[in-house]
Specification:
Radius of gyration: 33 Å
Keywords: Nucleus, Transcription, Transcription regulation
Number of strands: 4
Strand content: 15-25%
InterPro entries: HLH_DNA-bd_sf, MASH1/Ascl1a-like
Subcellular location: Nucleus
Number of helices: 6
CATH topology of the largest domain: Alpha-Beta Plaits
Helix content: 40-55%
CATH superfamily of the largest domain: ACT domain
Main location: nucleus
GO molecular function: DNA-binding transcription factor activity, RNA polymerase II-specific; protein dimerization activity; RNA polymerase II transcription regulatory region sequence-specific DNA binding
Structural class: alpha+beta
Largest sheet: 4 strands, antiparallel
Order of helices and strands: HHHEEHEEHH
């Protein structure tokens, strides 16, 4: 029994005063230490559970956000910057935005992306040609916003309205 008490005592945090305690007091110290560890374990389990619940909520919010695509378009002279935020499962949106930009006659200079969870962030930099500088950015912006908003409107931009060369200024 003395060897077992000694082993029990060796498993507890070292205190020089404990060795001088009587055997029943050493056992009481061990019991108190075990109860403290149990309380810490319960606290840790509660904290872990709350973190998991919080993670599930944020994942759910991230999934809700990833289903909706957001776009920001910044015009700076002849430069056009398109910031696209979409779900990582919506890669076709990125390719469609690139197609629209190129279809409207702008040159894509760079396209960068990063992924965070289920969300993809794209930044596309394009250059608008001088021949379409006046109305080009507005037309591209309108088409991109219409595409991202999912508008099924039959009212398309009529090319002749945007062909400013045909206008008499």
């Amino acid at each position: 029994m003395k060897i077992l008490y000694s082993k029990l005592n060796s498993l507890l945090p070292t205190h020089s005063s404990r060795e001088s305690l009587a055997l029943p007091d050493q056992i009481d110290e061990a019991i108190n230490y075990i109860k403290t560890l149990e309380a810490k374990l319960k606290e840790s389990e509660v904290k872990k559970e709350s973190l998991l619940v919080g993670r599930k909520r944020s994942q759910r919010n991230l999934n809700l956000e990833s289903t909706s695509t957001q776009i920001e378009i910044h015009e700076m002279g002849s430069a056009l910057e398109v910031v696209l935020v979409s779900g990582s499962d919506n890669q076709f949106v990125f390719f469609e935005v690139l197609r629209i930009i190129q279809e409207e006659g702008a040159d894509v200079i760079s396209a960068k992306f990063s992924v965070s969870g289920d969300t993809t962030y794209n930044v596309i930099n394009a250059e608008i040609g001088e021949s379409m500088f006046i109305f080009g950015a507005a037309k591209i912006t309108e088409r991109l916003k219409r595409f991202v908003s999912g508008s099924s409107s039959d009212l398309e931009l009529q090319p002749e309205l945007w062909d400013f060369e045909a206008w008499d200024f």
